Amino acid sequence: MRKKFPLLKKHKNIVYLDSAATTQKPDEVIQAFTDYYENNNANSHRGLYKLSENATHILREARQEISFFIGAEQEEVIFTKSATEGFNALAQSLEVGRWNNIVVTEMEHHSNFLPWQQLAKKTKAEFIVAKSNNNLSDIAKYVNSKTAIVAFTGMSNVTGLQPNAKKIIKEIRAKNPKTIIILDATQLVAHKRLNVKTLDADFVCFSAHKLYGPTGVGILYGKLNLLKEIKPFLYGGNMINQVKEKDSTWAEVPEKFEAGTIDTAGIHAFAQAIKFLEKNDFDALLHFEDELKDYALKELKKLEHVTIIGHENKNYGAVISIKILDLHPHDLAEICSREDICIRAGHHCAQPLMKALNLVATARISLSFYNTKKDIDKFVKTIKKARKIINGWTLQRSITWTL
């Protein structure tokens, strides 16, 4: 599978273990950009000439491909530039009163935490942060008759936890059927089949670059009736029906939320990423990824100085954070870099969770089907090497101070 990804094929020594940050891109995705700009570059929805019609058709086909992949209607798929923009857009559009409350969890990435924190500040609504416990199963207990919004993650980018989102949503609905439920599927969508209809969240956000697509493209799914009700979050060309001096009316969904010139080339490339996954049997790829995760956990558990954060059961995806006795995550990341191993170290844009875990930072590996057991073996070997290096530095400093 590695040979299908140009960067990994070209740089044979690289062990890429940072797919939670962004995935590598297959040939089809990269070629889609070139093909679009060489053969179809024009502004979609703007012209009656052939090139513009081609661009509009390409955009329509991409929306169809993406909507089918997540089980949505085409009109329910809104193109943004990132999941972050999707959350911020919703925070601009949803109505919240000062008598309401907004519930998030301490497990959230900052992009699904800060927009709601700031919305609560602006509207004087109560901002409630639910404790993460082991599986986010307690979210519903924070919901009451005043809860306007609940936003939570479908998979932690720190621990890899995949809470039972469908069950949580059902419990929230039982407490308050009017609560708007927003799911962050940014990590989940690359590691598990997503069907927005059976899930029953009101809105779902994710980014293309986490799912083997390009950067600069995001997806905001929303139930059609809600998309028709809420106000636009961007104003300008393409999203209007009629503009008058004193008032304006908006285009139908989804164009209502897609002001300006959107990234047709990137959206086209993302559709090719989805086609690539389906062509190569996405479910089989996910099964292999799970096997690789289990192997990584088994090998890491053999290291007596390593503590794995989470992964007490099977409700975790292929994201593994660790802490190592006497070895700072940044030191490990630097030593890994010297060995051409790409990992992530830090708070992972999830500081409330790190505080709850009583941690400042972790070292994180995140796996994909283009990884191998050899990649894991090299990482484990480098952990052992890093501890020897750090212990050598400590001993040298100790001798220097003694002298």
Would you write up a description of this structure?
This protein is an alpha/beta fold and 403 residues long. It folds into two domains: 2-18 and 281-402, Aspartate Aminotransferase, domain 1 (Alpha-Beta Complex); 27-278, Type I PLP-dependent aspartate aminotransferase-like (Major domain) (Aspartate Aminotransferase, domain 2, 3-Layer(aba) Sandwich). Helix content is 40%, strand content 16%. It contains 13 helices and 15 strands. The chain has helices spanning 6-10, 27-39, 50-70, 83-93, 114-123, 165-175, 196-199, 224-229, 264-279, 282-301, 329-338, 351-356, 373-402; strands spanning 15-16, 77-80, 101-105, 126-130, 147-153, 180-184, 203-207, 218-222, 240-243, 248-250, 306-309, 319-324, 341-342, 344-346, 362-366. Strands 2-8-7-6-5-3-4 form a seven-stranded mixed β-sheet, sandwiched between helices. Strand 5, helix 6 (165-175) and strand 6 form a beta-alpha-beta unit. Helix 10 runs parallel beside helix 13 (373-402) and helix 11 packs across helix 13 (373-402). The longest helix has 30 residues, at 373-402. It is globular and about 75 Å long. Residues 394-403 have low confidence and may be disordered.
